[in-house]
Amino acid sequence: MNLIAILNQHQNIVIIRHKAPDLDAYGSQFGLYYALKEHYPSHNIQVVGDQNNLNFFEPLPPMLTDFTNKCVFVLDTVSKQMLESLAFEQADYIILIDHHQNAPDVKYHEYLHHPGASSTAEMIIDLLQENQISIPKAAARALYFGLVGDTGRFQYSNTSSHTFECAAALLKQGVDVSEVNKVMYSEPLQMKLFKASFLARMQWTKHFVGYQKNTLEDVLAWGLDTQTISRGMVNQMAGIQEIPIWANFTYDLKTDTIICELRSRDIPIVAIAKKYGGGGHVLACGCSVSSFEEADQILADLDQLLEESHG
Length: 311
Prior knowledge:
Layout: H1 3-8, E1 12-17, H2 23-39, E2 44-47, E3 71-75, E4 93-98, E5 110-113, H3 120-130, H4 137-151, H5 161-171, H6 177-185, H7 189-200, E6 203-204, E7 209-214, H8 216-222, H9 226-229, E8 245-252, E9 257-264, H10 270-275, E10 279-280, E11 284-289, H11 292-309
Parallel strand pairs: 1-2, 1-3, 3-4, 4-5, 7-8
Antiparallel strand pairs: 6-7, 8-9, 9-11, 10-11
């Protein structure tokens, strides 16, 4: 993508990403923002969107309603279901950048897609380097958060030699690895205790799909946001030898839906997420359904998948 040519034609830039952002969404958003702000000081560049406890950068204004005369970057998703608003479709120019398996169902003018990339942050690093746009320290720090977040500290199978090359390039810009790890992985005692109680409530199906159902009553009793309970807790069930697939179902007060986070050690599960209107990675994906009865259908599909894999 000739990013320079595009930005030379557009002075007003808005960078958005999916709602309920994870570290890759935040990292790629702020990484691109800090890099472009330094390279184009006369441009009007904005980052907007909803926030949660993973925003380790700076406060964000809410989503815009008017995108007139703007060029919009949509990062880390191409799915309507994952977007806070579709008002951006009225923008003059729309660029999608994503590494997930889904096909776009939103309007766009440019689509940069690399499902082999570890993260959207990795794609942003490549894009900036290819266009000879420097990555200042603040941008490098944000992008490093994205790399670490979507690779699980470089543990997941999406980690490649190129991922490490990208990480090395960021470290050369002054990223403090110990500071990033402290921010990401230090937490209050109360959260540790909550995680212990969460894992103790785990259930499993006949063929050992581990799962957790977090009802409205649970969410209200815990006093935590949906993101923390849903995506933030799903991998408490990871690393158990007998559990090759695990799922976390959480009631979302804002949307009156059930947020479904699906994970697998090595059996592809993204087709099941897509069946219910979602998507994501081959082994880490999700969707939203209207009831826990539908969540039970997802569990049945996952259980059948395990039965078939056992032959």
